[in-house]
Structure formats: structure tokens, C-alpha cells
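Dear support,

I submitted the protein below through the web form. The confirmation email said the job was done, but the results page showed an empty box. After a refresh the structure appeared. I'm attaching both so you can tell me whether what I see now is the final result or a partial one.
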Amino acid sequence: MRRGAAAGLALAAAAGLVPAVALTAAAGLVPAVAFAAALALTPGAARAHDTGPDPEPPAAAPAQPPLLYEPPPPGSYELPPIARVREHRLVGADGLPASLPALEAGQVAIVSFVYSSCGQGCPLALATLQRLDRELAASPELAGRVRLVTVSFDPSRDTPERMAELRDHLAPRGAWRFVTAPDDAALGPVLADYGQSVVRYLDADGVETGVLGHVLKVFLVDESLRIRNVYSAGLMDARLIRNDIETVLAE
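What the results page shows now:
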């Protein structure tokens, strides 16, 4: 797959249009977080969310099955900037102010938006990032140049303490931060900047159910705060993301 095909898939995935082409195989996943209901992935998992009992997290990210196609090698294609974002002030899992994405020269960030009680789409993203975290930690040439940031878009429930629990269950080996916002008002500009829409579902009485609808998105952001790719369900694979990381860092 060369630049044209890769770009087409990326745009389709970013729009939530790529079919969930056997997301059960989308990475041979097992439960990755204590808060997620399960990774019983089905078509539409990037949009539909439910809750359930809390499974135990795995000790390590599971191995991935073969890809359905051969990804282009790093540096053999280009990733033109899609948009530019701003630096934002949020709250870290330690309760202290935290910047997003907080990059230094020569670094890139992988930014994901989740909420801790999400039952399907978010666990796919978190399991993929857990696998990527393991790979980056084992790669000295990349470990200091890539920052993973997981942002909650449910600040009323995902307090710093809860994000700390999520971090501890995923057991990062590298630079992977977990942040939230003090309230919805502070979160709004962040979601707007990244184009991450969220719908709060209500019951028949107009009361929030705690279930949030959203298109699954993970962003690759460069040192100039430019979004270089957006990954949705169809492209949520640590190997593809790593190839993109290496391509951007080699520029």
C-alpha cells in the first residue's frame, strides 16, 4: 500500500467509515483495563458503547495476528499535516496541572480520547496503546521521542484518582500519561480542537445514563502541534502507528 491508498484508508477511518472488518481479529485482544466491560468487539464498536462487569487486566499486551495487508515501510510514504492543534492545560493522574500534548523538540505524541466505563471502542484503543507502549519501551531509539497521552472526556466520573487507577492497571513501561479535565467547560475547547465529538445519552426521563457515544479516534501529533494521522477502528494497529511515528520522526 502506497501513499494514495494509505491516505484513503486514513481519511475513511478518521470519518468512522472503515468497516469494523473483523475487529475480533483486529488484534487478538483480551481485556485490557479494569474499567472496560470486555473486548467482545463487533461491527460498529467504534461508535456503540455499553458498560458491564470489570474484568481483570492482562499482565502484558497480547500478540497481534498477521495484518490483512502489507503496510508500507517507514519513510516510504508521506503524511501531510491534517490540522493544527493548540497546547491545552488539563489535570494529570496526580491531580497536578498537565499540558496536552507537552512535546519537546524532536518528539511526537499519540493522543487518545476515552472514558473509563466504555465497554467496546475505548478498550480497543487502550489495548493498542498498551502494545505500542511495550514496543516503544523496548526500542531505545524511539523511547525518548514518543509520548502517549490518554485523555478522558468524562471528567465528572474520571477523576484524577480514577485515571491513576487506569494507569496502574495498564502498567506503562514508557512515557504514557493519563489526564482528565476539571470539568466539561475546560474539556470543551480540547474536544473542539481535536474534532472529537461526544454525545451523552439520556434515559426516557432525560437523565444522563453515563453512556457516551463517540467515534473512536487516536491522533498522531508532531512537534509543531500538527495532526499527521487519525486512527479509527479500521486502522487501530500498533504496527501501523509505529510505522507512521518512524516516518514523521525521520523527516
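Response: this is the final, complete result; the empty box was a page-load delay. The beta strands are 83-84, 88-92, 97-100, 108-114, 146-152, 176-180, 199-202, 208-213, 218-221, 226-231.
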